[in-house]
């Protein structure tokens, strides 16, 4: 029984690494702009559809699909940034969120016209095999995604804390008004943030889909829900929280799938989020952010 539980936790960590990658994208946008980009998941989906179109019509090459997915996601991400966030005033958070939802519908319609069938094959990046260590095992493609998540986190941490552009993003996130006074170009910094988020989303989308070996029009909705839930579990605006939230969500879903009914797996995610919002509204790592903002308002 205990061995089964540990195996479920290992599976949950592997699957949750994909959730963490999605949550990082939502966290970057929310941390810098204090807005939620509801079209992030559909942007990844449309980029993956473009990669799938290349796979079906030009050459069946996984590297080509990877580059096509990243390129398509970045192009769509820039389109969303220009239309939903740069064109709307910084204090109009509701307007930008609603406009991103409208873009969500638009992107899904474009995807349906690009590839009208409901399900298409998606190439695997590596040959699938099972890696065993003692009584436990892990799928090679899941382990690849987990290692990729760790590498991306390290690179992102280095960029945000060791480069001038990263420091500008953090300054804009912590205090937008003060960042303007010290000469940070807000438009260029926001564009850079969206570019990084889209790049990350394209990579995450490709490796998540390559483990499933197929893509459907529901992927955008699925990616949005999983990314948002993982972000809110870990704490909105917290990069470590995005990682922990995604891994926790994966572990819970894996155990519910094994010990309960498979239908309850997705329901367990919403129940976990509800419990977290009741007991710790700021999330695992976001409570300090909530308290800091509350103290700042009290000082004002």
Labels describing this entry:
ABC transporter involved in vitamin B12 uptake, BtuC; 12 helices; 77% helix; mainly alpha; 300 residues
Question: Can you walk me through this structure?
Answer:
Helix 1 runs antiparallel to helix 10, helix 2 runs antiparallel to helix 3 (62-86) and helix 2 (40-57) packs parallel to helix 4. This protein has twelve helices and four strands; from the N terminus they run ααααβββααααβαααα. The strands form two sheets. Strands 1-4 form a two-stranded antiparallel ribbon. The chain has one domain (2-299): Orthogonal Bundle (ABC transporter involved in vitamin B12 uptake, BtuC). Strand 2 and strand 3 form a beta hairpin. The chain has 300 residues and is mainly alpha-helical. The N and C termini lie far apart (55 Å).
Q: What is the 3D form?
A: globular
Q: What is the tally of beta strands?
A: 4
Oligomer: single chain
Largest sheet entry: 2 strands, antiparallel
| Number of DSSP helical runs | 12
Radius of gyration: 19 Å
Q: Sketch the topology as an H/E string, one letter per element.
A: HHHHEEEHHHHEHHHH
The low-pLDDT segments are none
Biggest sheet strand order reads 1-4
Distance between the termini: 55 Å
Nearest-integer average pLDDT: 84
Q: Which strand-content bin applies to the residues?
A: under 5%
